[in-house]
Hints:
By secondary structure, the chain is of the alpha/beta class. The protein has a single domain, classed as Alkaline Phosphatase, subunit A (3-Layer(aba) Sandwich). Helix content is 27%, strand content 13%. The protein has helices at 5-13, 63-66, 95-99, 118-126, 139-146, 188-199, 228-253, 267-280, 307-326, 397-407, and strands at residues 17-18, 39-45, 55-56, 79-80, 86-87, 103-110, 159-161, 177-178, 205-207, 223-225, 287-292, 333-339, 359-365, 395-396. The strands form 3 sheets. The chain has an 8-stranded mixed beta sheet with strand order 8-7-11-2-12-13-6-14, sandwiched between helices. It has a 3-stranded antiparallel beta sheet with strand order 1-10-9, with no helix packed on it. A hairpin with a 5-residue loop joins β4 (79-80) and β5 (86-87).
Amino acid sequence: MNTTRRDFLRLAATAGILSQVDPFTSRLFAAPQSPTSSALVVIFLRGAADGMNMIVPMGDPGYEALRPTIATTIAEGVVPLDKTFGLHPAMKSLKPIFDAGKFAPIVCAGSPHRTRSHFDAQDWMEFAAPGDRTMRNGWVNRYLEMTRPKKDNVSEFRALGMQELLPRSLRGSYPVLAVPTSLGRRKTGKTLDRFERFYGDSGGMMEGGDSMSGQREEDRAGVVQSGRITIETLRRFGEIIAVAEKKKKKAMRNNQTVSGTSYPKSRFANRLKQIALVLRANEGLEVAGIDYGGWDDHTQEGGVEGRMATRMTDFSQSLAAFCQDLGPQLDTTSILVMSEFGRTCRENGNSGTDHGHGSNMLLFGGGVKGGKVHGDWRGLKETDLYQGRDLAVTTDFRDVMNEVLENTLGFDVPKEFFPQYSPSKVRGLF
């Protein structure tokens, strides 16, 4: 075997990342979870997705003037949602969910902080603490810690990060398993076998150090969970996926009522499919997080067609398949989609858009009052724009998070949950 120790350390990084215990989360709220409890799936569009190219303000008279080459119109296939807004043609697969009242777009949502730095904006949104560099526990992890069940009621799959490195929203003192991308493929068993032979029965914890080279300094902080406990958990995850797939195929052969959903052939779609399988298996999954990168469209963004349209097609078709696959379970699941900030309202000289301010948040699932576009839209006149160039933030992202925590997960959000911020109600969202 030509594998070096560093190679195995790098593999260990895919097994699950925990950050140091933060005193902030020392307060616990007993809330044992049952297999039928509600669930939250958080999707982060990294790179600052262009909200105006997703939820299109087709009815605003200033829209096409600001975007002479990348604007999309009804004649080009925009799907109307109301008199002002429509879905980009690449996102038309989400219209049936909107019509069913289970999809609520929120326009002009985001962070009030003026930063245009991807790293800072992502951190502060995932820590739910704009401008606060001391907070290092993700907002979802804080929820998990504050609702930590009694030891004998803990599911090892209560929280999953469906990627190698946990999203920051899931990092913190509550242990969350990061599921390697390759898990579920045929080579997974051999990969875990090699990992287990290398470390034997040692188990324990290892410092992350250089095993996470290439990431930001703060990504290398904390420890990497490895050894037999993690290996066994990952093996168990693989078994759940395999058993769920077999049950689904058998039921379909017997003409039972099972979703015959067809997912796109993409990494994002496959990860959503795995989340659906675990949710349907009633293994206690309560929170899952997943990133979708590549949304930093400074050049050749495209209108009806182009790089962003291709990305939106995969995103929307995958999400539509996921909602269909969940079936009735969608009624007890919320899917929250966000991005660190929006893009400039005016396209640049390279047929793209630059770092902006306000964007969208997309909310799907049970309890949400969908079928309408939420948020305070002020228009595209220069006097209505933030710094004369961007959409203003009229709905703070923490207000939406607070609504989801309260209405989906039944969490009585404590005063100190959002540092130095008291959330406001988002009227009519639930």
